[in-house]
Amino acid sequence: EGRAEGRAEGRKEGREEGRKEGREEGRKEGRKEGIEEKSIEMIKNLLLQNVNYDIISNASGKTVEEIKKIEKSMNN
After folding, report:
1. Which tens digit of pLDDT belongs to each residue from 28-48?
2. Which of 65, 24, 68 is nearest to 44 (CA)?
3. Which residues have C-beta within 8 Å of that of residue 46, sequence separation ≥ 6?
4. Which of 7-11, 12-16, 63-67 has the highest mean pLDDT?
5. Helix (H, G, I), strand (E, B), or coil: what is residue 62?
6. What is the pTM of this model?
7. What is each CA distance from 70 to 24, 41, 52, in whole angstroms?
8. Rounded Cα–Cα distance for residues 61 and 64 (Å)
9. Helix (H/G/I), strand (E/B), else coil: 60
10. What angle do CA 4, 8, 13 make, to 5 degrees?
C-alpha cells in the first residue's frame, strides 16, 4: 500500500515538474518569436525609408541576404 502511494505521489510530482518546464520553455520560445517579429518590423520600416542594406544589417544583426529576402516578401 505504501509503495502504491509513493508511486502515485511520484507520478504527480513528475507531471507537475513537466508542466512547469513546459510552461517555461513556451515562454522562452514566445519571447524569442516576439523579438524576431519586432526585428523584421524594424527592418521593413528601414527599407521603406530607403536605408542602406549595410546600415540595416549592422542595426539588426541580419545578413544583407536575409534583409533582401524580407524586402522581397514585402513586394509580394
Report:
1. 999 999 999 999 999 999 999
2. 68
3. 55, 56, 59
4. 63-67
5. coil
6. 0.72
7. 30, 10, 14
8. 9
9. helix
10. 145
CA distances 42 to 15, 16, 29, 54, Å, are 40, 39, 20, 14
For residue 76, is pLDDT > 90? Answer: no
Query: Residues 42, 52: contact at Cβ < 8 Å?
Result: no
First-to-final CA distance of the chain: 67
DSSP three-state, residue 63 = coil
The Cα–Cα gap between 72 and 76 comes to: 7
pLDDT in tens, 50-60: 999 999 999 99
